Amino acid sequence: MTFLARTASLALPLLSGADVLGMRPEAWVRPPVAAPRQLSPDQVLALWPRLHGSTSRPPSDTDLLEGWTAYHNGEFSLAATRGEALGEKGLALLNQATAIHANYVEPREATRLALLRQVAGRAQSQLLAHPDDASALYWLAYALGRHAQAVSVARALAQGLGSQIKLTLEQLLALQPDHADAHFALGAFHAEVIDKVGPLVGRMTYGVRAETAEALFRRGLVLNPHSASGHIECARALLALHGETHIDEATKLYERAAAIEPADTRERLDQELARLGLRD
Length: 280
Fold this sequence. Notes:
With 280 residues, this protein is mainly α. It contains 15 helices and no strands. The protein is globular and about 50 Å long. The N and C termini lie far apart (46 Å). Residues 1-21 have low confidence and may be disordered.
């Protein structure tokens, strides 16, 4: 069975949920933090490598650039609406705005989970037509991973979704070895599985290892040292893998995340998460 066939067969049970009231972007609440500054389209282009990594090309389409500008300024609902209106060329914007709103902002659990299923469903459809679409691979893995965390990692593993997430991220890194966020996501996957099932079962059943998780995070932070979310996920992984013995190292990672000057609203949200983590 091919990677794509495995993806389709494993994702279908997760994507069968019904829509819930409030899923449309116009019903979304605004982020709880203000944008660090209002970016212009030209500023978004200048910051593109910082905000999207070296593996993503900036948009040449004016309408698409305006949509991305809305996204980086924290107007996730407007960005999603504009991405949807642009059809296929706006799918990456639509998926990113939806996933980030769902993960960071959406207060209603049922809506949050439905939005993540929506992202996964769109990404899955993209991959059926374009199996090497890096954006679709990442947002499929992201949506499934966040959904699993919200519902139950153990249940997701039992449903076979763990293997799908791992395969999707490995496929993405084979296509784009310098994709920092994919390194963070795959590192987090290794750590979470070990935390839930233990190192022996994790290694034998899912092929996960603590040393692989740590190596993935190290590489991701080399690729994107400005990633507050990467620092936070690395701290969480160290605590999941090693517990209180690594509390000092985890604290330093949270401190670095909190000290990173945010370039857009998503980075500002990550900074606030780091500050909350330090208070906890």
